Amino acid sequence: MSQPTEEEAKELLAKFREAEAAIPQIVEDRSGYPVYPKPINEFTRFISLSAWSRTDYSAFPLQELKGRIEEVNLDEVRALLTLVIRMERFSPGGLKTLLDEGSVEKMVGRAVQLTTTNQDPLSS
Length: 124
Known about the structure:
- It is built from 6 helices and 2 strands.
- It has helices spanning 6-22, 38-49, 62-66, 74-90, 94-100, 103-115, and strands spanning 27-28, 34-35.
């Protein structure tokens, strides 16, 4: 898959902002697993179907990268964003944790910074 464009970065940010606004709407089902509102599902679907996704994400040292998001390169931030969407499959509630702790916002900010000329990646 090709590298993300500036337009895709803007779309990523827009989808993230919609997802971020929906965080308070996350509820738990009877088993205690989170049920995500539509904007969060649309955000993760956008990542999975776009140039932001990397099928080889597991080849990256993801825990290390998560600790230094502000320094990662474009391929690394793509791997981290893929981790965001894959994590929920193997660790229910993992996405909610990453959203709550602000990690996803940092990843999106870095992604936008690396693909746009805008100096402040989270302003818009």
